[in-house]
Amino acid sequence: MSSAQADVTLHSFPTIFSLSGKIAVVTGGSRGLGLHAASGLIQAGCKKVFITSRKAQACEEACAALNALPNPEGWEEPRAVSVPADIGRDVKEIERLVKEVAKVVDRVDILFANAGATCKWLLIFVCKKVGFVRLSEVTFASFWGKVR
Ligand SMILES: NC(=O)c1ccc[n+]([C@@H]2O[C@H](COP(=O)([O-])OP(=O)(O)OC[C@H]3O[C@@H](n4cnc5c(N)ncnc54)[C@H](OP(=O)(O)O)[C@@H]3O)[C@@H](O)[C@H]2O)c1
Hints:
This protein is of the alpha/beta class. Helices cover 52% and strands 11% of the residues.
């Protein structure tokens, strides 16, 4: 086999981009980009997608729409799970979100961090650098440390 032939030979190509069986959390998943992302994750094969935003009813409606999508791989329903939380208000809300997710699954493969932080983080960064560090540590380290 030539060098070029070897380089274009991609092993397991049909599966390396698959999200089949993955578990995801989408913050701000009740509408807009987050809900688009959640839909994409489900349709790409994720077996569980947790949706969080401040409004419980909006989360429920988003999950109902997501769970009505085709389920060609036959994953256990519901694939979309609502966990309402205000993740921009209080670190305790993020910790509660982590606990709620951990009640259902033993790991998270994908964290789609889409809402509730950008402006407030910038504000905290400008006003109090320690606050920014603490909040970002909780969002990422806490999530990955506790759920993964
Ligand atoms: N759309 C764009 O063209 C664009 C471009 C650049 C960047 N962005 C950024 O991408 C993100 C999503 O944009 P989008 O247009 O999809 O926004 P959107 O339609 O306003 O949706 C925001 C989502 O975040 C949730 N959310 C807001 N504050 C929250 C909080 N404190 N805790 C938990 N959830 C919260 C909202 O639900 P609840 O109201 O129920 O909490 C909603 O589900 C935003 O951060 C935006 O700044 C968007």
